[in-house]
Amino acid sequence: MKISYKWLQDYVDLGADMTPEKLAELLTDHGIPVEVIERLNKGVHNVVVGHVVQTEQHPNADKLKVCRVDAGQAELLQIVCGAPNVKAGQKVPCALPGAELPGDIKIKRAKLRGVESQGMLCSAAELGLDTRLLPKEQTEGLYILPEDAKPGELIEPLLGLDDVVLELELTPNRADCLSYRGVAYEVAAILNRKVKFEGPVSIPVTEPANSSEQVKVEIQSDNCTQYSVQVVKGIQVAPSPLWLQTRLLTAGIRPISNIVDVTNYVMLEYGQPLHAFDLSQVKESTIIVRQAKAGERIVTLDGQERQLDESMLVIADPERAIGLAGVMGGENSEVREQTSMIALESAYFDPGTTRLTGKKLGLRSEAQMRFEKGIDPSIMRSALLRAAQLMADLGGGQVVGQPVEIISRPAQELTIDLRITRTNQILGTNLSAEVIQSFMQRLGFAVSERDADTLAVTVPVRRTDISREIDLIEEAARLYGYDKISTTMPVGVLSQGAYTGGQWLRRTIRELLSGMGLLEIVTYSFTSPGSLQPLSLADESPLRKQIPLALPMSDERKVLRTTMLPSLAEVVGYNLNRKNNDLALFEIGTVFHPNSLPITEQPLEKTKLAAILTGGFGSQNIGEKPRKVDFYTVKGIVETLLSQLGITNVVYNSDERPGMHPGRTARAVVNGTEIGFFGALHPLAENTWGLKETYYLELDVNTLQQFSRSAIEFRPLPKFPAIERDLAVVVTLDIPAGSLEQTIREAAGDLLKEVRLFDVYQGEQVAAGNKSVAFSLVYRAEDRTLTDEEVQVRHDQVVQSLREKYQAELRA
């Protein structure tokens, strides 16, 4: 928010000893930081208003003119000028001999192509004005001043160059300071002075001549709780007077016309956004505040056609939308040069709805910013009448009748109990009730005494940031002065911070996978509905239930993902297109599963560990090629990870998953609970993503936490020797090795300490449809040396169990 130092003095007496620098320091010390102090005079001195009395062609130059200028001197000055728009009768800035301009330019008498020039006529750029905010005609050639400017008058006060602008860095909760009145309240409280606001506005009105001069208003949405409209007729749209333009320029707002400029001026003054409609363009003189219809379209003031949805609030007439409530007006009802009667709107629109509309449509305006942060409904009528009066004065019009007002939910002031002892306890002070009461009253709050230790403080509706006792305590601290509060050490019981179990697990997983040579990536949780197409999902698949986003980033990021596979596959495809062929990537992310669509309750969020590998993996030593990724590479990563997390008794079974190769996919199960799956991608999915020989794993992090052991178990080294036996059995192809291993462990009992699969064979030496599976078994007792006879008994039990359960035969 940019605040003019001179304009602010209209509302509060700053005192003769105050300076912009002192004011900036006071505001900053009291919680309203001043980011920039800008002096508008960039080096202009001794520049006056000049009246061009006569112009003649330069005798020696086609593009120069010799002007006779009245600059308030005893005699007319002769000035040579090359501006294309100079002509007799104009009032323009005139730099006298000895004058200074921005850039350390000093004006002297000089001869230009043989003709003496006694000064310089100036453009806006030469005066250091911000030409980006000026009308085009004021930036091409000389800067034209109003006709009532007096020759010889200094240009600095006329153009506001003797002013200083303070740019406030407001926090989002201080919407009340987005106006001069709001800042005036703050400054008055800090200086312990009174604000200088005009009383209730009383303006002369004329009665409507016919029904076209009367506006009817209908509110059909709960997102508008107050709406007022005032008709002003007989206006003439023209440029604003210089004083109004100057004040808007100090705020960084471009002057447009007297009508539009008044709405912006009053918005800066009161903080209440206003909008003017050309009443002749409003059908049946009826204004309807309603929700937009699905697919409804409107061309806004920036010339863009926009498609609306039912979440957006619009201003409409009986036939079409004529404005986006609180965001931007419609082109079909804008004030034009020929406009003679306007309907001036002052309203309160729901902040959330206004913000959502602007976000969806990519629009941002000064009015929208104020609506979404919260405005003061109590000054709506005053702001409306103030603007109507200015429009009538500056546009030569008449205010018609009284405003039409509809208030469905009046704003309520909030009364909060403020305890004196609690205030001093929080601040570490010893302030009396009288001092604290004076702080509240200086802020414009009504205060009454509830008891000896409690004040009842009534907060005006303009202070939307105050809702609790602690907020009032903060206000007391601001006015008392943060620098006066003694520095003390915190008192209380401090707890030691620590990671949760889930945080430790995720950190451990990252360290383990990084140590194995995988790289961590982070992808969006948002995706597109089409991302599931390569998985060839069944119609009833739960993975199809994707939650749509209310404000998607783009069409490619409009739903929440239900699986991480497409996200990682797209990353691999992106890298392969750039010749990064050896990839081993992992991500710990979230997938989302709704209980129903559209969602009516919090969806189920699951944390997943996903990894994807393709190309080579492993050693990068000189002369040694990385090993090509295969099924056992991925299984080895899973086994190593689970082992390091202390997860035992893992059983691997063949599996089928969408997007995965049906014959090269397995799931991992612990104590009957599935913890994840891994394997090769389906060839059709690979072709869609542009991948080859790619492997994927996905584990449920919450389930891993359930079975992992955070504490390391230490066991004494074995005192007695082990006996190792190899066992090779022939079984049918459909029997998983994991099932054989589980049966071996159950049959061998507690003497069996280790089982390791070391060979799987299919070939000429076994019958067709069978395979040979070989295990290494390690037996050991904790209290004695085992004999061959004891081991043989257990070994025979294993063979017998395999034979009975799987018709397994020992391989010769």
TrEMBL record:
How cofactor binds (record note)? Binds 2 magnesium ions per tetramer.
| Coiled coil region boundaries | none
Q: Which residues bind Mg(2+)?
A: D465, D471, E474, E475
Class of enzymatic activity (EC top level)? ligase
Q: One biological-process term from Gene Ontology? A: phenylalanyl-tRNA aminoacylation
Limits of the B5 domain: 411-487
Q: Under the GO molecular function aspect, what terms does this record hold?
A: ATP binding; catalytic activity, acting on a protein; magnesium ion binding; phenylalanine-tRNA ligase activity; transferase activity; tRNA binding
Q: Which domain of life is it from?
A: Bacteria
Answer whether the UniProt record assigns the keyword Transferase to this protein.
no
Q: Known catalysed reaction(s)?
A: tRNA(Phe) + L-phenylalanine + ATP = L-phenylalanyl-tRNA(Phe) + AMP + diphosphate + H(+)
InterPro entries in UniProt: aa-tRNA-synth_II/BPL/LPL, B3/B4_tRNA-bd, DNA-bd_dom_put_sf, Fdx_antiC-bd, Fdx_antiC-bd_sf, NA-bd_OB-fold, Phe-tRNA-ligase_IIc_bsu, Phe-tRNA-ligase_IIc_bsu_bact
The enzyme's E.C. designation: 6.1.1.20
Query: Which positions make up the signal peptide?
Result: none
Q: Which UniProt keywords apply?
A: Aminoacyl-tRNA synthetase, ATP-binding, Cytoplasm, Ligase, Magnesium, Metal-binding, Nucleotide-binding, Protein biosynthesis, RNA-binding, tRNA-binding
Q: For this UniProt entry, what's an example GO CC term?
A: phenylalanine-tRNA ligase complex
Tell me where in this chain the FDX-ACB domain is found.
718-811
Which PANTHER family does the UniProt entry name for this protein?
PHENYLALANINE--TRNA LIGASE BETA SUBUNIT (PTHR10947:SF0), PHENYLALANYL-TRNA SYNTHETASE BETA CHAIN AND LEUCINE-RICH REPEAT-CONTAINING PROTEIN 47 (PTHR10947)
How does this protein assemble?
Tetramer of two alpha and two beta subunits.
The protein here is known as Phenylalanine--tRNA ligase beta subunit
